[in-house]
Amino acid sequence: MTTKPSGQTVFLAAVVAGSCVLVGYLLLFYNPARTAQSSVDNQSRLTLAEIPFNGQRAYEYLMDLCALGPRVSGSQGMHAQQKLLATHFQNLGGKVRFQKFRIRHPQTGKEVAMSNLIVEWQPQRRERVLLCAHYDTRPFPDKDTRNPRGAFVGANDGAIGTALLMELAHQMTSSKGKLGVDFVLFDGEEFILEEGRDPYFIGSEFFATAYANARPGTPRYRWGVLVDMVADADLQIYPDSRSMSWDDTRPVVEAIFDTAARLGVREFVAGRRYEVLDDHIKLHDIGKIPCCDIIDFKYPAWHTQDDTPANCSALSLAKVGWVLQEWLKQAVRQ
Ligand SMILES: [Zn+2]
User: Fold this and answer.
1) Which of the four CATH numbers 3.40.50.150, 1.20.200.10, 3.40.630.10, 3.90.780.10 does domain 2-331 have?
2) What global pTM score does this model have?
3) What's the 175 CA to ligand 1 centre distance in angstroms?
4) Which residues does 171 contact at the CB level (< 8 Å), separation at least 6?
5) How far is the CA of 216 from the centre of ligand 1 (A)?
6) 42-81 tens-digit pLDDT
């Protein structure tokens, strides 16, 4: 850490954020007073009632998911969640299937049943858009100073992307355009019982590998967007540097941030960038899918027992949901 003559502090840190995920690297110019100011400046004046994305209902979905308790890969909580989600998406007209596979438990060596959940909208369309999130929760709240081996319900880190897609599903059968849409919920994003030993991104790696090896003629993804940790009340989403570094993916990021600017959702902040390791990297590097990550990993309750719905904001969820909803309307027309 060093200090510039201007008084700004340059802070370079290795971040294990996770949703996500992540093991990432963060390079930002940090000054507490400046950050507090920019945080206020970046809050748009929108209210829930003004936003045509039902943030309150999405928040209720978030509570439903967290009420199931921890949803660790292979657990009863995960099975209950899969049942709930299959019913939800089918009732709204989605075609639901599970992409099942098995792994070895990193400690016991026993088989663990894994499933990515795939919801297809307009399945007859050959070119498609991928909207995705992870739906497993980390086995333990490792960062919790009081109880790092306690229960972890993963509201912002695990349930939020799923809740957003549950709400977006209400509009999907009426989606007009040339492209179809798939929602994919990844298992095993962070089945981490021991950091440094256990692999991240198991579900997205399996999905991307199957996609890369699919026979010719299989539907292809034109664009992909991964959503993670978007419900902090102090929402600030910056372009992910990794996503911006890929020539095929940068247009997706720019289109989403342009959409946010057009709607007046100022919590999408251009300029400063984080680099985040998350499921999108498997999708891009293995599946060759231009997939970006929309994430705000500056979340105080990250990987603690405080990551509960009470520390998530329906308004933040509504803002991000609205931006993605409006971006998607344009994206499927291309
Ligand atoms: Zn996490």
Assistant:
1) 3.40.630.10
2) 0.89
3) 32
4) 325
5) 35
6) 678 899 999 999 999 999 999 999 999 999 999 999 999 9
